């Protein structure tokens, strides 16, 4: 039986302006392999309001020209809405987050065709930071460089090598989470993968009852999780890798005040999924075109970053990371 992690909502409220867009790809044409005359892409863009049509046009025009059919882009109210649009055949392609990709595959047999690339990575770790390395570090903290900003930061428990470029690759050092028993731990909202979900699962796997064994210190945002540790409001805090760079102006000695001592499993970026109603050769051509989009021109790279905050797409989908993300989400479904 397929698992539904996100509650369905009324299709009419999901996507602005979608009515009637999906009929072109359904029915006998898709079944017998003929290409539809039009497909619709549903996404949650980074831009808002009047800039939306202008932002979408370069991508949809590129795909229309490459495929030889009309490609229309529409904005979804949220990531959940992209999945429901796909299920209702109001959209045949979705650009969405990792949890929605999982639901699209599980609920509607969608095909995961691309993964999002942000600054060269398709996934990232949640990091456990502490102001008490004597308790949580089995070795002396070392300094490694966070290349995205050129800042040297502190790490222990083999999470990074001394005097190297930090990689942020997890899991690592998770056994040290057994020491949080009785500690004040800064956690973000329960919907945050890096600030709550993956850290809570990691602590539970080390035998910690996260409801009874720790004092949860609620914080909003990755920067505040780091600041809670640096300021002594929490002994341990969790945020994405490496959120310490967001507070270096406020706390220049953040490497001393917040040491990274553990990385969770890798948390996947989102990506692109295609409806099972689309012909396979169309999906293959669409995948190639979108995979090549960021490199097709300087304008394309700019549009992609401005539109959905990405530097690239890759056809190396690492499906197992999406599946694992679904398993993690399932633990917090209620």
Sheet with most strands: strand arrangement = 2-1-3-12-4-13
Gyration radius, rounded: 22 Å
CATH architecture term of the largest domain: 3-Layer(aba) Sandwich
With helices defined by DSSP (H or I, 4 residues minimum), what is the helix count?
11
Judging from the principal axes of the Cα atoms, what is the shape? elongated
* Annotation, overall tally of beta strands: 13
Provide the CATH topology of the largest domain: D-Maltodextrin-Binding Protein, domain 2
Spans of 5+ residues with little confidence (pLDDT < 50)? 1-32
Order of helices and strands: HEHEHEHEEHEEEHEHEHEEHHEH
**Total number of domains:** 2
Largest sheet: 6 strands, mixed
- Class by alpha and beta content: alpha/beta
Fraction in helix: 25-40%
Tell me, rounded to a whole number, the average pLDDT: 89
Q: Say which CATH homologous superfamily of the largest domain is assigned.
A: Periplasmic binding protein-like II
The fraction of residues in strands falls at 15-25%
Name the CATH class of the largest domain: Alpha Beta
Distance between the termini: 19 Å
List the helices and strands and how they pair.
Layout lengths: L27 H4 L6 E6 L8 H16 L2 E6 L3 H9 L5 E4 L1 H11 L2 E7 L5 E8 L2 H4 L5 E5 L4 E5 L28 E4 L5 H13 L9 E4 L3 H9 L5 E5 L13 H4 L1 E10 L2 E4 L5 H17 L1 H11 L3 E3 L4 H12 L4
Parallel strand pairs: 1-2, 1-3, 8-9, 8-10
Antiparallel strand pairs: 3-12, 4-12, 4-13, 5-10, 5-11, 6-7
Helix pairs in contact: 2-9, 2-10, 3-4, 4-11, 9-10
């Amino acid at each position: 039986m397929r698992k539904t992690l996100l509650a369905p909502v009324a299709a009419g409220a999901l996507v602005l302006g979608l009515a009637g867009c999906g009929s072109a790809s359904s029915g006998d044409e898709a079944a017998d392999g003929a290409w539809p005359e039009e497909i619709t892409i549903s996404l949650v863009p980074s831009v808002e309001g009047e800039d939306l049509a202008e932002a979408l046009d370069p991508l949809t025009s590129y795909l229309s020209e490459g495929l030889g059919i009309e490609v229309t882009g529409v904005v979804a109210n949220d990531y959940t809405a992209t999945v429901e649009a796909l299920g209702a055949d109001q959209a045949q392609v979705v650009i969405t987050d990792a949890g929605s990709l999982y639901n699209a595959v599980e609920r509607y047999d969608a095909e995961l065709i691309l993964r999002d690339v942000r600054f060269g990575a398709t996934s990232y770790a949640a990091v456990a930071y502490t102001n008490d390395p004597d308790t949580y570090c089995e070795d002396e903290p070392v300094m490694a460089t966070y290349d995205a900003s050129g800042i040297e930061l502190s790490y222990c428990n083999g999470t990074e090598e001394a005097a190297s470029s930090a990689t942020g690759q997890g899991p690592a050092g998770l056994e040290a989470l057994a020491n949080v028993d009785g500690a004040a731990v800064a956690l973000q909202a329960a919907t945050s993968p890096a600030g709550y979900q993956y850290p809570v699962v990691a602590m539970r796997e080390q035998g910690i009852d996260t409801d009874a064994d720790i004092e949860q210190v609620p914080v909003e945002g990755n920067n505040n999780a780091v600041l809670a540790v640096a300021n002594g409001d929490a002994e341990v805090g969790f945020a994405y890798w490496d959120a310490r760079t967001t507070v270096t102006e406020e706390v220049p000695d953040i490497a001393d005040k917040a040491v990274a001592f553990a990385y969770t499993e890798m948390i996947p970026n989102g990506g692109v999924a295609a409806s099972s109603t689309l012909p396979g050769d169309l999906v293959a051509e669409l995948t190639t075109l979108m995979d090549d989009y960021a490199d097709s021109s300087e304008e394309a790279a700019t549009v992609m970053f401005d539109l959905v905050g990405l530097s690239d797409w890759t056809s190396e989908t690492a499906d197992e990371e999406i599946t694992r993300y679904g398993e993690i989400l399932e633990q917090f479904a209620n």
